[in-house]
Amino acid sequence: MKKEEAKKLSEQLVYKRKNLWLSLEGENVFAYAKEYMKFIDRAKTERLAVDFLVEYLVERGFKPLESLDRVEKGERVYITRDGKSLVAAVLGENLAEGIDMVTAHLDAPRLDLKPYPLVEDSELAILKTHYYGGVKKYQWLNIPLAFVGTVVKKDGTVIDVSIGLDSGDPVFVISDLLPHLDGREGDFRKVFQGKDLNALSASIPATEPGEIENPVKLTFLKLLNEKYGMVEEDFYSADFQLVPAFEARDIGLDRSMIGAYAHDDRVCSYTALTALADLVESAVPSRTTMVLLFDREEIGSEGVTGAKSRFWVTFIERLLNLSMIDEMYSIDFLLERSRMLSGDVAAAFDPTFKDVYDPVNTAKLGYGIAISKYTGSRGKSATSEASAEFVGKVRALFNRKGIHWQNAMLGEVDKGGGGTVAKFFAEKGVTVLDAGVPVLGMHSPYEIISKADLYETYRAYKAFLEGDDV
After folding, report:
1. Which CATH number among 2.30.250.10, 2.160.10.10, 2.130.10.10, 2.120.10.30 corresponds to the domain 110-244?
2. Please, where in the chain does CATH 3.40.630.10 lie?
3. Per the database entry, which stretches of residues form a coiled coil (predicted)?
4. How confident is the model at residue 419 (pLDDT cuts 50, 70, 90)?
5. For range 200-214, the mean pLDDT
């Protein structure tokens, strides 16, 4: 075969990924990224993320479902669950014919405070923590941490607490052992213990040493009481977290990337919800469209705010009822007619650690939304694996819309793996495929994404929710 013939044949037959930066309109990419960075800076917890996104929805004509006695075609509605999960929908021509959904999760790896976290040791007040989700514990040492959360005080008053996010606030730090004295050896997972993740919180005693027990702890409680009216017992009815106090920043001289805490998975949450809100408000979609944003994914989706719960199913049942559709009995049939993109981040290829990846089947920064036909580990355990038919339809949609997509797996075989909420929807009959933003440094306090992938994921979710022949 001649060189020119082989080249032409290669162009016809060989799959080639393309770098988005060579074809995207940079102005739109950077403008969208700027707004996303405002969100990710504010959304340090799942509660703060829900607060931000509810404000965003209300500004764009969405109404809380509980405020309505009836819903019409084209209605924009939402619900929240315990301030930590959010579901929003735009009613289509016939709800009973199925729903096009994008789901993601709002929780992220972090350090939760223990029920009674405050202790004094050697005239230092420290906050004891219990890590949440999969973390490398050493990454949380000697970085600035913010104390954020919600407390229900003994009189029933609900108070939001935030210390460390504003530029003038103090922060909290888990100190590490200096290298001069650190002779520890062995597996880092054993060297760094969860019980040692204790954050410095105060050092000034309230009185002379010996006059009362734990005088530095008392100083901390006094300051907390002055600011928020809290007493120590209130810690027990609180959701308090220590989260990185970093601001989102541009990464690279070309400003092509974003470094921030909790891209996983607030980046898919933001792109999905903005895609839903940007559907043409005056038009009634042919199919009902929905975005579901859950809590608890990082620890198995347990609890009433996780994907395993029924609150989102109840939401659909209420929509059927308020739509005057006499098909309450057919929720299972409706779900079997529904389609979903499970929006969760993918592992991006890191050239420093090539041996843990299959480069042909790993997402790269700047190459578009990452599609994972299956996730799981150890022989595809705990995966929902999308059908060839549905993958083909999504692929055709993205190609038709000019959306850059790429194949993704979470590491080489037997090197790692992981799951998403997709399997819980597949169990209920929903046709589902994983698709999200590639991330470097996943589960670290400062993850990295490409602005191009961020914008392309928004475009992909919007195309899917528009229901164009999927």
Report:
1. 2.30.250.10
2. 6-108+261-465
3. none
4. confident
5. 91
